[in-house]
Amino acid sequence: MDNINSNHSTPLLTTNDENSPGTFFRKLWEENKMVWHIAGPSILISICQYSLASVTQTLVGHIGTLELAAVGIQTLVISGIGFGIMLGMGSALETLCGQAYGAGKMRMLGIYLQRSWLILLGTAIPLTLLSIFATPLLLLLGQHRDIAKLAGTYSIWMIPELYMYALNFPIQKFLQAQSKVWAMAWISSGVLAFHIPLSWFCIMKWGLAGAAVSLNFSWVLVVILQYVYIVSGRCKDSWSGFSWLAFSDLLGFLWLSLSSAVMLCLEYWNLMVLIVLAGLLKNAEVKISAVSICMNIEGWIFMIPLGFIAAVSVRVSNELGAGNAAAAKFSVWVTVSIALVTQTAFILLILITKNSFPRLFTSDKAVSKEVSSLAVFLCISIFSGSIQPILSGMAVGAGWQGAVAFVNIASYYLIGFPISIYMGLILDWGLKGLWGGALIGVGLQTIIILIMSWRTDWNKEIELSKERVSDVVVSDEEDTSSH
């Protein structure tokens, strides 16, 4: 079953239910099912798509430490910049498609998808320069020359991946808004199963060039298969083919896309800053390899709350679009509670195996020892990932991207970033100091968004949702009828 149309039927939770003990646990169970219906396959999608690069990076790690450091810094910095911008700009669809779907304006979803493609593909063109000039950029950031040179070469080979991001993320948000997530889950699972032997064969035969070939090909396959699903008739209510309406109101759409990109990029790049600063430490090759492994592990585990982000964004935007403030608010707290339980299980597993799990990623004893020493910081970061990302998903669903972007600038870069430099480089606490400062920024941002959500007038958010959707939808539907 692809769809649960709760937003078009009886509301899951009404304002009167909030103070009714007799119905609370039933509503809690129903909301839990709603969240998992979206989050379950979304987690599988996230794990499979993240694993494409992660599998490649893990296999490269057994070639050599230099290759691992080069691929790690390219993935987290050069590719990370493109990934963050594309994911962020594509997230504008979570607000618009989600609220339009909740309001029953199905025809607009396909138009929004095409607008997002136009904007993201246009954005990918200047971002290509980052890959072309990756080596001088990394040298400017103080990275070791050998690492920067090899990472720069690999970055050029990975340019096709950037354009697949531009096509993939809008498709994901388009389908997520309609709760059509199982199709994406099966596609991503199948591509990953194909990618593992392909990546192993290509890397063993052609080294880093083979890694780029296999990873680029797998991303192309993901995009093609998802597009085939959309045009096959499975989305007949929301996709009616390409339209010239995609070129209308691009400026307003671009503004929301940029706000979404700034908000999410500032979060994603917080980790990128960490690995860049690691390159300034003594014995940089070991430090970068160690923090790359930690980020790799955190990235895998982050796929769980990433699924919850998709769920809470869809639930909040759908319920606001349907005019049900109590259900939107209730969904946020249920999702945070679920995420806390799942992330705690991973924390316990890491602490128990902290002296053995690094050997899965490297055979270098110095790197393994460094990773083990960072286990506590990794666990704190994972714990914060059970709350902060869910609140960000809520912000996207409600359309708060602009406000949260300013919060991120203050907490991450005006406070957390200087503390990282002071503790890691000036006090010479190394990776622990760098990571500690980053965690302070994350904690501050989480507290501020918690306060924002606690003080929010959700009924006012419903009115804003109606204005956001109806103004644009009415004018566009008039254009549609005239054509």
Order of helices and strands: HHHHHHHHHHHHHHHHHH
Radius of gyration: 22 Å
Portion of residues in beta strands equals: under 5%
Q: What is the global morphology? A: globular
- Number of discrete domains: 2
Q: Total number of β-strand segments?
A: 0
Distance between the termini: 34 Å
User: Helix amount, in percent?
Assistant: over 70%
Which class do the helix and strand fractions yield?
A: mainly alpha
Summed up, the helix count is: 18
Largest sheet geometry: none
GO molecular function, one term: xenobiotic transmembrane transporter activity
Family: Belongs to the multi antimicrobial extrusion (MATE) (TC 2.A.66.1) family.
Organism: Papaver somniferum
Transmembrane segments: 34-53, 73-96, 117-141, 147-169, 181-200, 206-230, 242-262, 268-285, 297-318, 330-352, 373-391, 403-427, 434-454
Topology of helices and strands:
Blueprint lengths: L20 H41 L3 H26 L1 H11 L4 H26 L1 H7 L4 H13 L1 H19 L4 H25 L1 H27 L15 H29 L5 H39 L2 H28 L12 H9 L1 H10 L3 H11 L2 H26 L3 H26 L2 H25 L1
Helix pairs in contact: 1-2, 1-8, 1-9, 1-11, 1-12, 2-4, 2-6, 2-7, 2-10, 2-11, 3-4, 3-7, 3-11, 4-7, 4-10, 5-6, 7-9, 8-9, 10-11, 10-16, 10-17, 11-12, 11-13, 11-14, 11-15, 11-18, 12-14, 12-18, 14-17, 16-17
